[in-house]
């Protein structure tokens, strides 16, 4: 007679092995730009500072000190970031697996986007008809404008990326809300916000009215989306920063090349 504990353990181990084997069959894509001095930042946020405070020559080991805003590089916005009556919904309260979900990439990087240009529901619906794919309930929507690939830099012009971007109109923000997605992300610094010289075109309806107030998280500065299959497994988890308004992320998209 089989020992029930051994039998259950064998079954559990096999499930883990199968999951690991399947994950290794997918193509991983790193979705975070490198955090370093001089990268773009939201204009009112402090600079990212990285100091080599402990070095091998003096201390026998190596360690750096970081000073940065929570919203630096690829990051997630928690509801508390913009919703005053949701200060209980800080980043440390987000479930660790909240950003592990299927995702759909809407790739519009072939367009010649200018600051202030707007993506609309008709653009999304046409894309879905063309490719036979659509984001569904409890999934993540990712929009690739091609903006980060074209304009992310670390020189004296880095802030141009932070002050200019295409965005989404309120009707599109509502469309994603009605799809009941977990999160919406983009390769721009403020997701749905269209910016011209640092001035938003509109009122950031995802941040203030439709997404964050309803628990739909916002992902910003998502890199390398041009390398991701249209449907992928998105894997990220925020740092549990106490009372945090957001957190840097290093997401991975696990892709199937026939998706």
UniProtKB/TrEMBL annotation:
<dbReference type="InterPro" id="IPR007325">
    <property type="entry name" value="KFase/CYL"/>
</dbReference>
<dbReference type="InterPro" id="IPR037175">
    <property type="entry name" value="KFase_sf"/>
</dbReference>
<dbReference type="Pfam" id="PF04199">
    <property type="entry name" value="Cyclase"/>
</dbReference>
<protein>
    <recommendedName>
        <fullName>Cyclase</fullName>
    </recommendedName>
</protein>
<dbReference type="GO" id="GO:0019441">
    <property type="term" value="P:L-tryptophan catabolic process to kynurenine"/>
</dbReference>
<dbReference type="GO" id="GO:0004061">
    <property type="term" value="F:arylformamidase activity"/>
</dbReference>
């Amino acid at each position: 007679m089989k020992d029930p504990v051994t039998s259950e353990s064998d079954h559990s181990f096999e499930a883990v092995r199968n999951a690991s084997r399947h994950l290794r069959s997918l193509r991983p894509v790193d979705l975070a730009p490198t955090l370093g001095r001089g990268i773009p930042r939201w204009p009112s946020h402090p600079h990212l500072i990285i100091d080599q405070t402990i070095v091998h020559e003096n201390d026998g080991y190596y360690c750096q000190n970081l000073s940065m805003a929570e919203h630096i590089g690829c990051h997630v916005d928690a509801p508390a970031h913009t919703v005053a009556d949701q200060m209980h919904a800080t980043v440390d309260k987000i479930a660790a697996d909240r950003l592990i979900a299927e995702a759909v990439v809407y790739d519009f990087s072939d367009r010649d986007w200018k600051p202030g240009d707007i993506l609309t529901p008709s653009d999304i619906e046409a894309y879905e008809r063309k490719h036979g794919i659509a984001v569904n309930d409890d999934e993540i929507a990712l929009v690739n404008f091609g903006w980060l690939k074209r304009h992310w830099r670390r020189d004296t012009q880095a802030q141009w990326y932070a002050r200019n971007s295409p965005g989404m109109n309120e009707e599109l923000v509502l469309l994603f809300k009605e799809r009941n997605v977990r999160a919406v992300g983009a390769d721009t610094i403020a997701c749905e916000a269209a910016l011209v010289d640092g001035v938003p075109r509109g009122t950031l309806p995802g941040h203030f009215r439709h997404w964050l107030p309803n628990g739909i998280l916002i992902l910003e500065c998502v890199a390398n989306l041009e390398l991701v299959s249209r449907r992928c497994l998105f894997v990220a988890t925020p740092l549990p920063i106490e009372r945090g308004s957001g957190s840097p992320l290093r997401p991975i998209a696990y892709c199937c090349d026939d998706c």
